[in-house]
């Protein structure tokens, strides 16, 4: 049974994005054979382990594969912690939207009003909402060597302030006029995190606790600050460097910060997106923004926009889902759900090769399998 607010926001999302409100209501049960096959035969040359959790009104399934530690050969645990990477952006977007509904931020006002002196003087006014849907035009973070294994290992324990990270991007001209195109960047979300801290006078981690994890009872979700460790249980993360496989589990996450530093579990990701879609974090005035994809082109010429103010929209095997992927060195994860919560998918895998351009092949297999259904009985 749907809560009244869920019905309302799904209907609103359908109007804003042309997504049929009942598109997922005919789903059959998850296909356990397809899901098992998607994560079979780990570890392999590219991935050491994986966990998948499927829940929702249409049925549930969970499974793990591979090793959580290549030295001890311990199996992957379904309750393990992992770095959620860019899924952090959803939490940051929720904080900004909460501040908007509290009338502490006007989403149409420029970022420069709330963070004076941060952006270059020759940049145009950048509405706050454009930070959330990647239409701000802000250039990408530009840290030479950021995707090079040797640089990663040499700088893995360094602290970077949000301002230092953003300043690496702001050396460059703005990419395009705000609102005219979409380009996915961490710059916008690190800036959004700075905005949250400035407006509230509280740290990002405290905002996360007070605004999201405490209200939803997420006891295994937190922002690590400068702590490079993962708590137990956790699958180790590895990176192939030449002919060696290096353990990169410990790593300071201050570079991605509000764009990618949160640590969580599959169960907590499930609880988060469920609570979010049920209207427990945002009211009906701002909820439709999560499902409103701007009608603009991608800046790189790769088709039309697919990100809303916080989420991304995907269509797989005829099912429309909303959520977010994330990756950090040694970790690739994600959380997706249909609007009516009939299908929720959380996963984490441990790739050994960092891919700045996309998700590992195993993630594509998981996505395909998780969007398949058995016929209804």
What does this structure look like?
With 377 residues, the protein is of the alpha+beta class. The protein has a single domain, classed as 3-Layer(aba) Sandwich (Beta-lactamase). Helix content is 29%, strand content 15%. The chain has a 6-stranded antiparallel sheet with strand order 2-1-10-9-8-7, with helices on both faces. Helix 3 packs across helix 9 and helix 7 packs across helix 8.
Quick description:
This protein has 377 residues and is α+β, with helices and mostly antiparallel strands. The chain has helices spanning 4-17, 32-38, 88-101, 111-114, 128-132, 149-154, 162-169, 186-200, 204-216, 266-277, 361-370, and strands spanning 47-55, 61-66, 82-83, 238-241, 244-247, 263-264, 312-316, 319-328, 331-337, 344-351.
Mean pLDDT equals 92
Global structural class: alpha+beta
Helix tally equals 11
CATH superfamily: DD-peptidase/beta-lactamase superfamily
Taking the sheet with the most strands, its summary is: 6 strands, antiparallel
Rg result: 20 Å
How helical, in percent, are the residues?
25-40%
Q: State the low-pLDDT regions, or none.
A: 1-24
- State the separation between the terminal residues, measured CA to CA: 20 Å
What CATH calls the topology is: Beta-lactamase
Strand content: 15-25%
CATH architecture: 3-Layer(aba) Sandwich
Order of helices and strands: HHEEEHHHHHHHEEEHEEEEH
CATH class: Alpha Beta
As for the number of domains, it is 1
Instruction: Please state the overall shape, judged from the principal axes of the Cα atoms.
Output: globular
Q: Using DSSP, what is the number of strands?
A: 10
Pfam family, one: Beta-lactamase
Domain Beta-lactamase-related: 37-356
Signal peptide: 1-23
EC number: 3.-.-.-
């Amino acid at each position: 049974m749907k809560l009244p607010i869920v019905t309302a926001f799904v209907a609103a999302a359908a109007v804003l994005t042309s997504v049929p409100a009942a598109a997922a209501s005919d789903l059959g049960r998850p296909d356990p054979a397809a899901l098992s096959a998607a994560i079979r035969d780990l570890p392999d040359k590219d991935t050491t382990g994986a966990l998948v959790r499927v829940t929702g009104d249409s049925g549930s399934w969970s499974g793990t594969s591979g090793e959580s530690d290549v030295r001890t050969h311990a199996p992957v645990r379904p309750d393990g912690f992992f770095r959620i990477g860019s899924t952090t952006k959803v939490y940051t977007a929720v904080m900004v939207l909460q501040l908007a509904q509290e009338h502490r931020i006007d989403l149409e006002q420029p970022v420069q009003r709330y963070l004076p002196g941060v952006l270059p003087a020759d940049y145009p006014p950048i509405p706050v909402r454009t930070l959330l849907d990647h239409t701000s035009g802000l250039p990408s973070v530009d840290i030479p060597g950021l995707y090079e294994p040797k640089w990663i290992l040499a700088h893995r324990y360094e602290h970077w302030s949000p301002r230092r990270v953003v300043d690496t991007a702001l050396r460059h001209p703005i990419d395009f006029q705000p609102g005219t195109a979409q380009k996915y960047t961490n710059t916008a979300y690190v800036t959004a995190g700075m905005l949250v801290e400035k407006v509230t006078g509280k740290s990002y981690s405290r905002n996360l606790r007070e605004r999201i994890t405490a209200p939803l009872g997420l006891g295994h979700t937190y922002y690590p600050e400068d702590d490079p460790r993962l708590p137990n249980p956790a699958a180790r993360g590895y990176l192939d460097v030449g002919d060696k496989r290096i353990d990169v589990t410990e790593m300071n996450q201050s570079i991605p910060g509000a764009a990618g530093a949160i640590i969580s579990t599959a169960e907590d990701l499930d609880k988060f997106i469920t609570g979010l879609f049920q209207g427990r974090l945002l009211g009906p005035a701002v909820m439709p923004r999560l499902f409103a994809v701007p009608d603009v082109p991608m800046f790189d010429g790769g088709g039309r926009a697919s990100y809303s103010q916080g989420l991304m929209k995907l269509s797989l095997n005829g099912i429309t889902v909303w959520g977010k992927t994330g990756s950090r060195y040694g970790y690739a994860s994600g959380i997706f759900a249909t609007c009516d919560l009939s299908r929720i998918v959380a996963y984490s895998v441990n790739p050994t090769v960092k891919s700045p351009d996309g998700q590992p092949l195993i993630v594509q297999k998981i996505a395909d399998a998780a969007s398949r259904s058995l016929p209804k009985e």
